[in-house]
Task: structure prediction
Amino acid sequence: MASTETNGEKMLEVSNPTHSKTTGLPRKRFYRARAHSNPLSDSHFPVPISPSQFDCTLQYPQFLKSDSSKKIEFADIGCGFGGLLISLSTLFPDKLMIGMELRDKVTEYVKERILALRASNPGQYENVSVVRTNSMKYIPNYFEKGQLTKMFFLFPDPHFKEKNHRRRVISPHLLDEYAFVLRAGGIIYTITDVEELGVWMKSCLEGHPLFEALSEDELEADPVVKLLSTATEEGQKVERNEGQTFRAVYRRIASSLPR
Amino acid sequence: MEDNHMEESEHKLETEVAPALIAVHPDQVSVSVSVGSDLRVFSLRDGSRVKLVDETGGHKDSIRAIRYSRSGRLFVSGGDDKLVKVWDTNSWRCIYSAVSEKRVTSLAISGDGMFVCFADKFGVVYVVDIGDHNSENPAPVNKKAVPILSHYCSIITRLEFSPDGKYIITADRDFKIRVTVFPKEPLNGAHEIQTFCLGHTEFVSCLAFISCQDYAQGLLVSGSGDSTVRLWDYASGCLLDTCDVGAKAGLLHSNQRQEEVLPAITDLCATSDGSLVAVAVQSLPGIMLLGCNFSARTLSVVKVVSVKGETFIPTSIGAAPSVPLLWLVMGASSLQSNDSALLARVRAVSGFTANTSETTEPETSVLEDTEIPGGEPLLQALQGKLSIGEEAFSTAAEAVKTAMRNLLIKKQYSAERRELRKRGRNDKKNQSPA
Result:
């Protein structure tokens, strides 16, 4: 934490060696990380005991000064280098949003990126933040029941081997937890360039009693849908290679289970 | 690296030690004790040890969970051999045996006796539709277990149905208690999470319900490795009170080494009216009784019931709702220093019942062996022998404590060791230092 702050100060003087001299943004080559991180291993970073102990004022100091009652509504799970968050930040300036990423160097990069953007665009990007965590284990530690209105799972690890399918971030049992933190009407966005994973994610969502697919018209009308393939670093890579993407966008519905 | 190898294999041996468990028939018709792979049942009605009938040959490895159904008609057992066995308590015949993919850590039977749930070491909960089994028709059940919910790769330590049958409650080593709606058709999965009860700062080791007349749904109490017992409104996830049992039991000594962890709560048992909760704590020779004040929604220490004469630290406790008697067992499987390997010692505490007066302490006493229902035949059957050397107690207490810690507490590696491991990674080897 301390290092982030000193970096932030340095950055204002445009002397930070890890930041670009012209844009003030952090440069990725200093934040290289392995492409994958094992979600099953024991975590050794601090996790809030419960959502009430997750201190948002550290994440959104400026934003919460004017309206301290606001809660996080969007979560980008496995946000990577944060491309989507940055686009969403200006598209929804009055919503709080957070990226969750397991790889600590990548998280550091996104942190720096947000600080740099806040510094060079005063008043903007105050509604976006990032946290290093294992979202597959700790989602309920960060969000209350029905707190979120949008969740994003963009280009997640495909985990091809069958024995590793339980490491996939979309799975029937994890969807129960996502349904818990999403309010009725909330939307879950998934996209991948791996057909096998696309089919898997769609079938998980299709088979879940608490989710229903958005209609073509609704997809067309939602400005966020377009960002899925264009805003993220992974999406841009796929576009450059003229690859195919597979999308599944579902809505959290109120319980229809007989009780 | 040699050292690390040694360390890890040593850990492995210790985690194999399983605590002895006790379960009491809801009408105290029988009492069951498991130690290692041994399942011992004593019928108080017949005054003799029950012969279990199981064509598949019983358990092959340490049993980790045993319990009776609410009606007492069924009994389940499961453990490290990845087997779940359902027994008819009339004939004590195994009517169902399921093979789990992973080791079984916890079990529960739905209130109506229709469904058996079990949790495996990877955090997946399975359900089996036992159907309306009755003793007249002891046909073996032939159904497959279906996964219904999961804690993401966290060991599930306890599994309970709420008293009203609406919820299934799971506790795990990641400090979580999850309350899930138990659906009408559980075979399709339990997808609707009611809430999470979050507040414990270490693994959650045990759960119990307390009910009272003006609050039919009852409240939940949980015990944890953080040495506290907490009181919850489990439908809302609201933490009502925290009782710091470790501190109150005087088990925290200032001369303890820094790395010494808090004594974990190992088991809980509530009287049927919920006014008293018995708590088993590591390092406490005896049990602690907590009182629950329903109107104030608080938990407070009533008294400590000490067991004199031997270092008796219960590993599991149980009681029949209709009988004011608390049963305790202390024991462990495969103690290396002990040739006879299995230790089980059964004790009982009388006066475990509703607190009639607010001001006076409940009249409790630890029963002498001769006063225990069933007497010596029961002790012979459940303990395997009548006299046990004092040394075995301290060995067992230490072994069970270490095993629990190794199983449930996350290993903390030093910063240097983590750095060393990182440097040894293949993708770093070729990188020149910056």
About this structure: Chain B is about 15% helix and 40% strand.
